[in-house]
Write a structure and sequence with these properties.
3 helices, four-stranded antiparallel sheet, binds succinic acid, alpha+beta, Jelly Rolls, binds fe (ii) ion, single chain, about 30% strand, about 15% helix, six-stranded antiparallel sheet
């Protein structure tokens, strides 16, 4: 590998100590594959467009969502779950692109989680004002596998809490190309995203996107 591959990658903006064990922020980690990542992203969202799902309690989510991979995360009035079929189209979710798989595995490994093979990628789209309330990712079968989360487009403030909803949160600024990983003792940490601020990103316009990789099944 040559140094030029990394010349655009910024210095870490947060210390490991602040984030805690089992949690890593890899600033700019996705920038090395940015072009392939964007092409693959566009192909996926063309086949499985964003939609606003409804929570079991009947609320429309402010974040638009879609999926790729063998399993997709969905919510409706009957609950949160993974399903191999897109309920909007009746078709299987688009396959996980190779560049997604490799990026997720490489990021997990960099964070200390070897051999991560995700079977689900939830893709979130945030418009200004859209947010994700504090929650745990716990619809997956195996909590031994980490979560890998890739930020694209507009910047956002990610919130990392503890294992209890009432634990204090750390604010993590995330920009295009940043990747965060949490697993092991951190796997069930509460997390969320503050309401998106308006802006214009050169590639993704007025939106923030997030790819969340999981081993769900
Ligand atoms: C999630 O928690 O599923 C997504 C987090 C994010 O958009 O950064
Ligand atoms: Fe989550």
């Amino acid at each position: 590998m040559t140094a030029s591959l990394f010349e655009n990658i910024p210095e870490p903006r947060l210390s490991k100590e602040l984030l805690g064990p089992g949690t890593a922020i890899l600033n700019g980690f996705a920038l090395g594959v940015e072009g392939d990542l964007i092409a693959a992203f566009n192909a996926v969202v063309e086949r499985a467009p964003f939609r606003h799902m409804v929570t079991p309690g009947g609320f429309r989510m402010s974040v638009g969502m879609t999926n790729c991979g063998a399993l997709g995360w969905i919510t409706d009035r009957t609950g949160y779950r993974y399903d191999g079929v897109d309920p909007e189209s009746g078709l299987r979710w688009p396959a996980m692109p190779g560049v997604f798989l490799k990026l997720a595995a490489d990021a997990a490994e960099e964070a200390g989680f070897a051999s991560f093979v995700p079977d689900a990628c939830l893709i979130n789209r945030y418009e200004p004002g859209a947010k994700l309330s504090l929650h745990q990712d716990k619809n997956e079968r195996d909590f031994d596998q980490p979560i890998v989360s890739v930020s694209l487009g507009l910047p956002a403030t990610f919130l990392f809490g503890g294992l209890e909803r009432s634990d204090k949160t750390v604010r993590v600024p995330l920009v295009h190309g940043d990747v965060i990983v949490w697993g092991g003792v951190a796997r069930l940490r509460y997390h969320g995203v503050n309401p998106l601020k308006e802006g214009v990103h050169p590639v993704f316009g007025g939106y923030r996107y997030n790819l969340t990789f999981r081993k769900a099944g």
